[in-house]
Amino acid sequence: MQKIPTWILVVAVALFDENGRVLLQQRPAGKHHGGLWEFPGGKVESGEIPQVALVREVAEELGIGLDPAALEPCAFAEEMGCPAIVLNLYTCRSHAGEPAGLEGQQFGWFDLAGAAQLALAPMDRRLLQQLVR
Ligand SMILES: Nc1nc2c([nH]c(=O)n2[C@@H]2O[C@H](COP(=O)(O)OP(=O)(O)OP(=O)(O)O)[C@@H](O)[C@H]2O)c(=O)[nH]1
User: Fold this and answer.
1) Of 50, 51, 92, 113, which is least packed with CB atoms within 10 Å of its CB?
2) Nudix hydrolase domain location, by residue (predicted)?
């Protein structure tokens, strides 16, 4: 019998460049919160270690390499529902390669004040507020 998850773990990264700007991307149209901006990342698959899932998601979405050891836990947000979503945010200050929107998404580097001006997905806005603090 297949078990229906009561909650889903999502991981995301606040990736900083050498100027202290953070990379954000736009969620694809047609998806939940389509068009809103988010920290890159995605769902942790069954049996996957969260940091490894985040490295995989960022490689799939942006074509860049992150070192799992460089990911620092930073903040989390929750959204109640069926299933509930738990979103863990890590910071990272280095990456390998040049980012590209491999899923056709817009992305950019923003200072924290500029990031706050974007139309952010609700949990990403709460995570940004924690990051600023
Ligand atoms: N980033 C973000 N995700 C959210 C928020 N609220 C919310 O329910 N989610 C959900 O958290 C999950 C994020 O995983 P994801 O980035 O892999 O999402 P996705 O739409 O590409 O999912 P998919 O892999 O099923 O196509 C999605 O199910 C998304 O709908 C939010 O405020 N921010």
Assistant:
1) 113
2) 6-133
Each residue of 16-43: pLDDT tens digit? 999 999 999 999 999 999 999 999 999 9
Query: What predicted TM-score, i.e. pTM, was given to this entire model?
Result: 0.95
The 3-state DSSP class for residue 48 equals coil
Q: How far apart are CA 21 and CA 125, in angstroms?
A: 16
| CA 18, 14, 101, 62 torsion-angle sign | positive
Look at the chain and report how many structural domains it folds into. 1
Identify whether 1 is part of a domain.
Answer: no
User: For the chain, which residues score pLDDT lower than 70?
Assistant: 1
Cβ–ligand 1 contact at 43 (below 6 Å): yes
ipTM: 0.93
Residue 37's identity, in one-letter code, is W
Whether 2 is in a domain gets the answer no
Range of the domain at 70: 7-132
Residue nearest to atom 31 of ligand 1 (CA): 123
85 alpha carbon to ligand 1 midpoint, in Å? 8
